[in-house]
Amino acid sequence: MRSETVIPCLPCRHLDDVLPFYTALGFDVTYRQERPNPYASVRRDGIELHFFGVPEFDPAESMGNVIVLVPDTEALHASFAAGLRARFGKIPVSGIPRMTRPRRMQGTAGGFMVVDPGGNWVRISRYKDDADEPHASEGRLARVVAAAARQADSHGDENAGIRVLETGLARHADAPDAQRLPALVYLAELRIRTGDPDGAVPLLAEVETMELAQAERESLARELATAAELAADLRGPAPRP
């Protein structure tokens, strides 16, 4: 006997706004019609989404929200990121559309956000467990980063996230480099997302000068890779020979 199935139906201005974006994420277009009304559906494994077109719709005013629970947000984000880079040459990090990076978030399941070209939020979250809350051994800045992610990524208020990080970094200025690094990298990312790349430069420079033990580098591999990616984006494409 089949179990119940829920399929979200989301608005967009035109189907051709959203369908190329979702196919880049690895979705298949399973249905499309233009008459009597624009309507389409996409599917990737167990995720199915439907869209209807409204020509006068403003994506900036969209209140569409979908929560998708997955066992591994890191793996899905990596797949989404690879698809976006292959199709569009980069991962959009600000405006509409955009995609955040996986992070723990204070008081809720960790994960990442995809805002599609229709302005709809697809919230990719892990099945919540004890690992979602930073452990005391990680230091107080880990909780600061989780609180900032709740504001900037989950609520979409990057400026609030910046304030949380700046206050936390100032309050815990004596924290070890290994504990400061994730907060500095996230703050640099939020600076870039809010159109302040110059504000990100000294933060990433500080990360580059940190002296970390090999074990610390291994545990911070994801944050170090993000810092390198942000620095490369700031430098721009390498000149052609």
What does this structure look like?
By secondary structure, the protein is an alpha+beta fold. Among the domains are: 9-57, 2,3-Dihydroxybiphenyl 1,2-Dioxygenase, domain 1, CATH 3.10.180; 134-234, Serine Threonine Protein Phosphatase 5, Tetratricopeptide repeat (Alpha Horseshoe). Helix content is 44%, strand content 20%. The chain has eight helices and nine strands. Strands 5, 6, 7, 8 and 9 form a five-stranded mixed β-sheet that branches. Strands 1-4-3-2 form a four-stranded mixed β-sheet, covered by helices on one side. A hairpin with a 5-residue loop joins β8 and β9. The model has no long low-confidence stretch (mean pLDDT 92).
Summarize the helices and strands and which ones pair or pack.
Layout lengths: L8 E4 L2 H10 L3 E6 L5 E6 L2 E7 L11 E6 L2 H16 L9 E2 L3 E3 L2 E8 L5 E6 L13 H15 L3 H14 L5 H17 L3 H13 L4 H6 L1 H15 L6
Parallel strand pairs: 1-4, 5-9
Antiparallel strand pairs: 2-3, 3-4, 6-8, 7-8, 8-9
